[in-house]
Specification:
0% strand, mainly alpha
Amino acid sequence: MLLYFTPASLTFSIALQALMADEASKTQISSWIFVFLIALLWPVTLPCIARKKLSQKVADSQEEAAYIWIRLAE
């Protein structure tokens, strides 16, 4: 049971953090249902969330490296 609820709570916290960042959807019941659905289906949603966050970090670091090289070339 703990092996299910630990990743589910992690997924819930990630989704809740994204919901709190969006001012418009805090009051919509469908947004809250979606957050709970994401937490229940964490075996599918958590890998997708992790892959997206990792690809964003890689893209950001590549942009930063390109910026450094441009600044050094000047």
